[in-house]
Amino acid sequence: MAFSEAKKDKTNKHVEACLEASRDGGSNPPASSLRSMLIGERRLPRRSGVSCEAGQQNETLILHRTTTRQAKILKFYYVYILHSIADAGRYYVGMTSDLQTRLKMHNTGKCTHTAKYRPWQVETAIAFRCKDKAVAFEKYLKSHSGRAFAKKHF
After folding, report:
1. DSSP H helical segments within the chain, as ranges?
2. Residue 94 burial (CB count, 10 A)
3. What is the DSSP string of 78-91?
4. Same domain, yes or no, for 12 and 67?
């Protein structure tokens, strides 16, 4: 008898938490966050292997979601994938803080590694506020598993 009462009490708390979340105007949170709300525990965010300096935030921003004015105000580090127009099978991964200038350098032949297969176009560009995270992501994309990831997702 006590077991069924405890189960009903727990179910009622779950329903109350769902109703409270829906009153806020948002969607219902997933069950794991409901569980943590009911128990009262605090969950810590996942840690990344790369840490940023105190003044930098750990957020990433996709390039197409920002305007040029915002990009000039904020300091971003771009990890980009170039695709050769002349040789369809050629890709190049790099990092820069000024994407348009860097693309011009690749297309004018000032970069020895990409001069042979120009012209290039930007296939994908991801902006990071933290330089350390950008360097780590570029290094990952240049690894074997990173190339497989880029081929599948980009």
Report:
1. 2-23, 31-39, 68-73, 99-108, 131-141, 144-153
2. 19
3. EEEEEEESSSTT-E
4. no
Rounded alpha-carbon distances, angstroms, from residue 150 to 2, 91, 123, 134, 147: 55, 10, 10, 15, 5
Strand partners, 124: 81
Between CA 96 and CA 103, with CA 98 as vertex, the angle to 5 degrees is 80
What is the end-to-end Cα distance of the chain in Å, rounded?
57
**Beta strand 120-128 with 77-84: parallel, antiparallel or unpaired?**
antiparallel
Q: Is-above-0.85 flag for pTM?
A: no
Same domain, 136 and 102: yes
Q: Is 117 helix (H, G, I), strand (E, B) or coil?
A: helix
Kindly state whether residues 123 and 73 are assigned to the same domain: yes
- Domain range for 20 is 2-39
pLDDT in tens, 82-127: 999 999 899 999 999 999 999 999 999 999 999 999 999 999 999 9
**CA distances (Å), origin 12, targets 6, 16, 27, 73:** 10, 6, 19, 49
CA separation for the pair 82, 103 (Å, rounded): 8
